[in-house]
What we know:
By secondary structure, the chain is mainly alpha-helical. The protein has 9 helices and 6 strands. The chain has a domain at 37-82 and 150-246: Cytochrome Bc1 Complex, Chain D, domain 2 (Orthogonal Bundle), CATH 1.10.760.10.
Amino acid sequence: MTIRLGGIIVGLGLTAVLLLWSLLPGVLNFALPEKPDYYAFQEENIAPEEGFSFEGPVGTWDVAQLQRGYQVYKEVCAACHSLKYVAFRNLEELAYTEAEVRAEAAAWTVPGINPETGETTTRPGLPTDQFPSPYQNDVAARAANNNAIPPDLSLMTKARKDGTNYVYSLMMGYVDPDPADQALSPEFETPEGLYFNEHFYNINIAMAPQLTPDRVSYSDGTEASVENMAADIAAFLTWTAEPSLVERKQTGWFVIGFLLFATFLAFLSYKQIWAGMKPKKK
Length: 282
Ligand code: HEC
């Protein structure tokens, strides 16, 4: 009897702890000060109209889009951002041949060492090199960018919530502040050297608007609109952050198929083993 009572008390206690725990975030929300009005400027992520080809359980890469995204990176973003976890040879996954990758790598300049003097120099890239940083070091990066460091973009879509759409949104976010929001905080203004971006967490970003219509010229006939370039670079940066994304989904389908097959086999062997054990009919 007492054991049962003890059990009930412990159970109630645990339930109470869980209940309080689940209410905690709500209580904290009340306790914390409200966000200032200028946060109204900040908007939720947006997505391209037709979405991305690699989304959903059976999505795959649109290799032509990834190639266009690479072109945007190379011709626009690489002026400030490195891609240090990606090597030139990885481009073979984007349907470039070995010779094309070799030529592509050689077109980039990477840091090197003079074999005779040991001094640092630069040399043409090799397929095994990673994409270099445009700056010697962080101090130089800050000096050129209003005291902000352009972050490495290799893992950017993983480092931000809803990363693919975030990169797309950030590229599209250089708009004029909404007058209704401006009315809420009339004293709000974008400081000198920063740029208003409604998708950046700090609202004012040290990166100038990068994509303007026809900033690059695509060879496959795709219109170089800001939307298209933004979607292409977002897709490309998703690939750099998770090159095995599509493979991972396909492996998942294979595993599910295999498990279904194994379940079927188990069912058959169950039938076999119990075949002679039918209960006698009365
Ligand atoms: C002229 C230099 C410059 C170029 C070119 C440039 N950026 Fe940036 N970028 C910056 C700087 C500086 C920051 C840091 C901004 C800050 O912290 O306020 C930044 C930050 C970012 C961020 C991180 C935002 C965050 O949430 O922290 C992303 C993503 C980004 N850039 C993407 C791009 C893409 C994509 C391109 C090419 C289309 C590009 N940038 C081209 C300078 C540049």
